[in-house]
Amino acid sequence: MPNDHTASHALMHAFRQLRHIQWGGRQQIDGCTRSETMMLLCVRRCMGSSPSGLKASDLSGFLRVTMPTVSQMVNVLAARGLLERSPDPKDRRIVRIKLTAEGERLTLETEAAMHRGIQELTEHLGIQRTQQLIETLEDIYKYYNDGSPNTTPPCEANPTLNPPK
Question: Residues in domain HTH marR-type (predicted)?
Fold first, then answer.
């Protein structure tokens, strides 16, 4: 049994390895960077309860990036026909951002591929080890984020943006 010092180094090494693996369940949308893919998936997830679209400030908060970064990514994704901007029906000063039909199609395909990858991992690990992994990851999350104000997942910070479950 390794001592505490050796175990902590082994754990740090294991965490570093996770950064370098090619996740089968972490798919990018063709022609998009990982950041753009994350934005599209965030818009899709949050649109369930906000069909008129999201404000750029909402995306900035959910993705924890600056407003100029959001604006740049929205411009690129709108030019590719994946996002569209429209005025807010209640306040025309506000611009709403939502997926186009093509953006919806690509995010659905990407989510399906991600689910297949996770299902394959679950089959590889088996039910018992998968459950242990879930519990361990939840414990790690709680340990590092206990009491932190920035731990709310996207769309849960604003209940009006929570998609239906």
Answer: 4-142
Contacting residues for 54 by C-beta, under 8 A, at least 6 apart: 43, 46, 47, 96, 97, 98, 161
How many residues make up the chain in this entry?
165
Residue 10 CA to residue 40 CA, distance in Å, equals: 36
Please provide residue 153's backbone torsions phi and psi, each rounded to the nearest 5 degrees: -65, 155
DSSP secondary structure of 18-63: HHHS--TT----TT--HHHHHHHHHHHHHHTS-TT-B-HHHHHHHH
pLDDT, tens digit, 9 for 90 and up, residues 52-102 = 899 999 999 989 999 999 999 999 999 999 999 999 888 888 999 999 999
**Rounded distance, CA 16 to CA 25, Å?**
18
- Alpha helix (H) residue ranges in the chain: 4-20, 34-47, 56-63, 67-79, 101-145
